[in-house]
């Protein structure tokens, strides 16, 4: 089972004008083992695209198959179950916390999807452990912890619903480098250990380069690249996408020019440092 977009378009309907936010989207995402980044400039349609994956938005043209459910649905057909199957973490998810304790907040999702109190409690504790929220915090107010911890609580609330696919809309936005790394480590583990498919919107090319395996580039509501990240960053016409190169690649290209260091692409800082050590340049 997977997610399949077939010639999907989405039009925001205004009072006076309509706006075509997505056009002719054809795309397949596997239910397991994907780590795909969706990138593109502001307003290119990234959020609109991912909101189709859990039926928050429905295509205004074309069709979509999400884990066997065809969208748009037939009249009276219920699609609410997709909110549980595809977990969507919005930008700044901490703004959506509302319960009086952290544990209650994390339990809200599973209870909403008909888990018993006991099941919801177990799922919430498991999700809290994954994001590093310890037992001492369970009974505290979610509004009295740090911003980074609040974000973890909000993410735990999505994980507690045990979604098959996790969709993250700029999850590291506003975090410092340490917070960014700690959070990405959680998603990396979910992907590597549980083989969960992760869909990540990010403006941070260093994050994309280090974690994603596949990259989809959107421009004005259309897909202009869909493939392996290596093929994007080493694309002969990379400039035509008007994207920044990730820092490790930028450093390597600079060193190639300045000191004739043979260019060997490295997609994260650890691999870059390892390579520089191997060639005796530290
Ligand atoms: N509710 C809405 N009504 C009308 N137009 C909208 C609405 N939401 C988004 N748009 C427009 O649709 C286009 C795509 O928006 P979207 O938020 O999907 O882009 P994005 O790539 O996620 O942008 P960003 O990187 O800024 O989050 C933009 O031009 C935006 O102005």
From TrEMBL:
It comes from Mariniplasma anaerobium. GO terms for molecular function: ATP binding; ATP hydrolysis activity; ATPase-coupled transmembrane transporter activity. Belongs to the ABC transporter superfamily. Energy-coupling factor EcfA family. It is a peripheral membrane protein. This is Energy-coupling factor transporter ATP-binding protein EcfA2. The gene is ecfA2. The keyword Signal does not apply. Its EC number is 7.-.-.-. Its main location: membrane. It is found in: Cell membrane. GO terms for cellular component: ATP-binding cassette (ABC) transporter complex. SUPFAM superfamilies: P-loop containing nucleoside triphosphate hydrolases. It is an enzyme of class 7 (translocase). Transmembrane segments: none annotated. ATP-binding (A) component of a common energy-coupling factor (ECF) ABC-transporter complex. The lineage of its organism: Bacteria, Bacillati, Mycoplasmatota, Mollicutes, Acholeplasmatales.
